[in-house]
Amino acid sequence: MSTTPALVHPTNPQPALHGEALSALRKPFADLRAQGLRSRDAAARLGVSEGAAMAAFAASGMSPQDEADSLYSTTVLDGQWHALLQGLETVGPVMALTRNDSVVHEKIGVYRNVSVHGGIGMALGAEIDLRLFLSHWHVGLHVLERTPKGEAHSLQFFDAHGQAVHKVHAREASDLSALEALVQRHARPEARPEFKPGLAPTTPDRPDAAIDRTGLAQAWADMKDTHEFFSVLKRFEVGRLQSLRLMEGVHTRRTPLVAVEWLLKRAAGSSLPIMVFAGNAGCLQIHTGSVHRIAVMGPWLNVMDEGFNLHLRADHVSESWLVSKPTSDGVVTSIELFDAQGHLMAMFFGERKPGKPELPGWRELAHSVAQADGGLAVAA
Fold first, then answer.
1. Which of 66, 187, 222, 342 is spaced 20 to 30 A from 303 at the CA atom?
2. Residue 144's domain spans which residues?
3. pLDDT of 5 above 70
4. What is the pTM of this model?
5. How confident is the model at residue 185 (pLDDT cuts 50, 70, 90)?
6. CA quadruple 152, 158, 164, 166: dihedral positive or negative?
7. Which of 186, 218, 251 is the last residue of a domain?
8. Within 13 Å of residue 57, how many CA atoms lie on the same side as its CB?
């Protein structure tokens, strides 16, 4: 199981580095990693994106001796995301990691049933369940890290600004020969990745007064499937959090900020199967099943289970909402968390499948959170 990660927000990552600048980046980055900083945080400390830092260790840009002595050796992949992810099935059990600034979601399992239609992909395995938004995938790397415990292999995928959208880490049970063959099929050692400076721009919400609230409420009430929610937001040109605020008292309700800890501990205590969604613009990762070991470590709220780890910065939760969406199978209820910038951190649902109503126990638990009016007592 992983330890609780640190968190450093990237600050204005710079564009591609070349020649001596690449060499100059490698040593301070390796030094920061040796001090215990995670690669994302070490890159941020140096004022570059994680993608740029990893690309600095491209084997094709180092002498054989430098590569042998280097902490990392990376190989650029060809961008055939569908084939790459499909090929992971032969590697066997791996750890899939998807994160945003406030939440890290880790699942151990096998990549199965990978499909891509247009720019949207899915992996629908029993353990690894992903929704992939491939227009945000810019560069893929095979990363070999030399550690005191031996070599660690991973595939790491970054957006155009060098922010990680998804990572795949080999485990003891992984077939490294199959992984090596997959990398060789997709290697493009001559490629030189470039990343845009700064972070991906976001579109500000329109003023509330410009939104057709009546039409939004009716379209929301007319939904037959939760996936229609995205088209409703697009049709009315309304932001996700903005829509929750505008529909407060109709389809949504605010909950206490400590709701997520209270929720997880009670779900664990009753073995209630839930769904935990977390991700970023390029990937949404889903856990389905019960949770067991809930641990608070400083600001981090953690699920530390066999096969599933969640690390959530509870102090980043600025708004927590109970959301009800009608479907042909009945109302589907979620608890949704947002940070101070209005970014979605994570979503929690009861376990369900299309064609089946949500679990009554989940609905009761979620509504009890919203009805607490800030009076939730969280057991240690």
1. 342
2. 19-99+138-186
3. no
4. 0.91
5. very high
6. negative
7. 186
8. 25
